[in-house]
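Example (one chain per record):
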Amino acid sequence: MLTGETVLLQLLLGFIATLGFAILFNVPHRALLLCSVIGSLGHTLRFGLVELGVSNVVATFGAALFVGLVGYLPARRLHLARVVFTVTGIISMVPGIPAYQVMAYFSRGDIAGGLDSAVKAGLIAGAIVAGLSTARILTDRAWSRSSEPLPDAASAQGELENRGG
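Predicted structure:
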């Protein structure tokens, strides 16, 4: 049930988780509070949508889209990379439990359970990517209209060899 107390608890938990990862990722001190607030709001939005009956995948997409859109503004104002706000903002959405369950099920020989968890983890990870990509397309016209072709594997390998890698 979605109560005021539950929402406040989720805001606090999201804030702490985001702040911890922001510190771990060496986010500049001037951006720590904003990163934590954005992550907290994204976490709570996803939690609230799930509590209201929205599927975890759709809720994750919505929350990642929110983080991507809201993270764009402080990135511009503080002249920081957008990923400073978006990566820390989505960290609480990463499907760690389903990913762990894949290994646990497979180690017990439960292939069906492992595959089920793998699909869940993949869909949630895809929802994060889709949400952040959609936000980027909506806020960065140059990125969404890039006419540069993606390098093929052969040309990428050639570049690595030319660099000595």
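Caption: Residues 2 and 48 are 7 Å apart (CA to CA).
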